[in-house]
Amino acid sequence: MVFGSLFKTVPKGGGKILVAFASQTGAAERIAWLSANALATGLAKHRVSVAALGALTAAQIAGAGTLLVVTSTYGAGEAPDSARAFVRKQMAAAASFKGLDFAVLALGDRKYDATFCGFGKSLDRWLVAGKAKRLFDIVCVDGDDDDAAMTKWSEQLNRLGAETSAGQLMPGPPQDWLLAERRLLNPSSPGGETWHVALTPGNPAHLNWTAGDIAEIWPRNTDAAVAAFLARHGLDGGKSFRWRGQWTFLSDIIAHSRIPQDHEVEGIALDWLVERLEAFPHREYSIASLPGSGRMELLVRKAVKNDGSLGLGSGWLTHYAQPGGVIKLRLRPNPNFHPPADGPQILIGAGTGFAGLRAHLLHRQHKKLGEAWLLFGERSAATDIYYAEDIKAWQADGTLARTDMVFSRDSLPKRHVQHLVAERGTEICAWLERGASLLVCGGLDMAAGVQEALVAICGQDRLDRMTQAGLYRRDIY
């Protein structure tokens, strides 16, 4: 196995492969490394290099020989943070890739249908425009559990000499955790309900994550709803079927799928019914605690739809799941939001984005690091200051050197955290001059507003350099 320098001189046609990744939450990076390992240890014994796409130039890509790209898409079809500068500085211009063979694995989510895998597709087109030759058509992956797409990717890797499978490249199954606590944090808030949810692991070995990591939650139907469906149709919930790559009881399959209407079931063979069931997607939440606490804590906004029904994930966690009941959960490492250097740090967020920032502040408190500045926005100061006792403790022990908050319902015109960032531009510049890192956690609209304010304060080039150095990190949803 050889993972060498990217640009070491090797003979042309000598099995040189460059695997590049552009990752927002770590999934693309993980698959890239696993793919590279499978190629380097396979029968062909390729010389394989791995690099972040954002660190490459068009000239370096042109000289790769064979290029495999694994990339996610962020926002409305955009590049992940680490590749934003690459788009502006490399993809904005035509380039020659004659002699380059390539393939793209694009990660996305079909609920954003218009922009599904948008960046991966634009990268594929850019390479073709430069006369690069596709090894095979772009493979688009819908979420973490798209077995069909990952099977296609693994089969193509094996044609290149790897030895791997979809199961080896995909994340493992979820674990069983228990609902230990559920508490409403903002009664009478002018915004939606926000809940503190605490989970304990069925296996203590699962208490293993880093500040910035993500919990993937598998929502489900209630036991009563599942039992009623099975009884209405005379079905045996103990019968097993091959589902999502594993043998699973019918009752569990129904629990984790949209329950069909009765007319959708009548006259249909059971095997076909199972194949047609629409499995619930998992929901992702920033983790608000550290493993040392013995439990995982989440900050969950209860989503209420126009018809009064509850959001899939938030409804399960805040309303339907029973205390002591099982919550299916998978940990996802999120290296792009792990703690950066130990120097000064500016933490910016809004709403339930406080979850990710809280984990980082707990990390800094544990390491006895001071010089942190929190800028946070919510609806009302009377109801929406989450974890106020934590904030007081961080202020008292020096973890927080400065705290600025803004509440949109308490002023006219409304002010949000991006306005606060713009107003504190001079002080933010001074902190950055001292080497401060920037962490942003929260919704897309907030993050876009904060990004715009930061560009006005310190310039796009500086933010690009901070991103490449790991000093500007975002957890955006």
How would you characterize this protein structure?
- The chain is an alpha/beta fold.
- The chain folds into three domains: 16-169, Flavodoxin domain (Rossmann fold); 175-332, Elongation Factor Tu (Ef-tu), domain 3, CATH 2.40.30.10; 340-476, Rossmann fold, CATH 3.40.50.
- It has helices at 27-41, 58-62, 84-91, 118-129, 147-159, 166-169, 223-232, 250-255, 262-265, 270-276, 312-320, 354-366, 388-397, 417-423, 425-433, 444-458, 460-468, and strands spanning 16-22, 47-52, 66-72, 101-108, 133-134, 139-142, 175-184, 194-201, 214-218, 240-243, 246-249, 283-286, 296-301, 326-332, 345-350, 372-378, 400-407, 437-442, 472-476.
- Strands 1, 2, 3, 4, 5 and 6 form a six-stranded parallel sheet that branches.
- The chain starts with 15 loop residues before the first strand and ends with a strand.
- Residues 1-14 have low confidence and may be disordered.
What's the arrangement of secondary structure elements?
Layout: E1 16-22, H1 27-41, E2 47-52, H2 58-62, E3 66-72, H3 84-91, E4 101-108, H4 118-129, E5 133-134, E6 139-142, H5 147-159, H6 166-169, E7 175-184, E8 194-201, E9 214-218, H7 223-232, E10 240-243, E11 246-249, H8 250-255, H9 262-265, H10 270-276, E12 283-286, E13 296-301, H11 312-320, E14 326-332, E15 345-350, H12 354-366, E16 372-378, H13 388-397, E17 400-407, H14 417-423, H15 425-433, E18 437-442, H16 444-458, H17 460-468, E19 472-476
Parallel strand pairs: 1-2, 1-3, 3-4, 4-5, 4-6, 15-16, 15-18, 16-17, 18-19
Antiparallel strand pairs: 7-8, 7-14, 8-13, 9-12, 9-14, 10-11
Helix pairs in contact: 14-16, 15-16, 16-17
